[in-house]
Amino acid sequence: VSGTSFASPIVAGVAALVWSVNPDLRPVTVEDLLLSTAVDLGRRGRDNSYGVGRVAAESAIAATLELIEERDTRAPRVEILEPANRARVSGVVRVSVAAFDSGDLADVVLSVDGVPFATDTDSPYTLAVNTRKLTTGLHRLSTTATDQAGNSATSSQVTIIVEGGTSSGSDGNGSQSGGSSGTASDAASLDIVAPAVRFNFPADGTRVFSSVGVQATLSDASGLRAAEWLVDGIRQQVMEIGGTATLVDFLWNASASTDGTHVITLVVEDSSRNQTSASLTLVKE
């Protein structure tokens, strides 16, 4: 039996085994454990037939136990660099965050008035707040960094004074005159962060001869909406997608193309209509 439909539940089952050993592991940590312990098959390294290899349940569990035995209990360090405390802001405000850990960080989450608002998984950590959707007056920002062992730390709060918000709020001196600021629905409506796109295979610059499968991992905190594949700028396939993370595949019939360099482009749109475009160069021989 073969195919992704058969492989998916097997990999999901191994992921469940890993979480049964340590339920506190972040999704990115579980993914890394599965990839790092897979048995390489076919051509050395990632290839179109076997990906990174065959999932290995026993090895993945052993690596998880080893991770636990290391007893990483040290929390990350995290602080908000910008904006400054009690800064008067309007429009879209960039929140710059410094986060460090002895190991690898899983993610950094920005909260507005105590409500989780946006997530960033890649350094440098920069998030955005559309203050036009907040009430005028005082609002408090904080960030929480979590490492791959599940340790987390929250930064000191930074107070911003929103000018030109949705309604009258605080007077800027600490008294709240009315209206609620940051709800979960507000957070979703403020999304201006584009989706993340990562090509899994083939590698950039790969030489191909006939048909080749291209795979990418997509993620977005607000939810994914659509993906479009182009070859040398010409649309080949459009697909509807959903969820906050998914894999997408495209089969390019290189044998029908001329020899030389060709560019595979993937355009991804999230539920808030933010778009990301990523390209991969392949050489037809």
Structure commentary:
The chain has helices spanning 4-21, 27-37, 57-69, 184-189; strands at 77-82, 87-89, 92-100, 105-112, 115-120, 125-130, 137-147, 152-154, 158-162, 196-201, 207-208, 211-219, 224-231, 234-240, 245-253, 260-270, 275-284. The chain is α+β, with helices and mostly antiparallel strands. Strands 2, 4, 5, 7, 8 and 9 form a six-stranded mixed sheet that branches. Strands 11-17-16-13-14 form a five-stranded mixed sheet, with no helix packed on it. A three-stranded antiparallel sheet has the order 1-3-6, with no helix packed on it. Helix 1 runs parallel beside helix 3 and helix 2 (27-37) crosses helix 3. The two termini are 32 Å apart.
List the helices and strands and how they pair.
Layout (H helix, E strand, L loop, with lengths): L3 H18 L5 H11 L19 H13 L7 E6 L4 E3 L2 E9 L4 E8 L2 E6 L4 E6 L6 E11 L4 E3 L3 E5 L21 H6 L6 E6 L5 E2 L2 E9 L4 E8 L2 E7 L4 E9 L6 E11 L4 E10 L1
Parallel strand pairs: 2-9, 11-17
Antiparallel strand pairs: 1-3, 3-6, 4-5, 4-7, 7-8, 7-9, 10-12, 12-15, 13-14, 13-16, 16-17
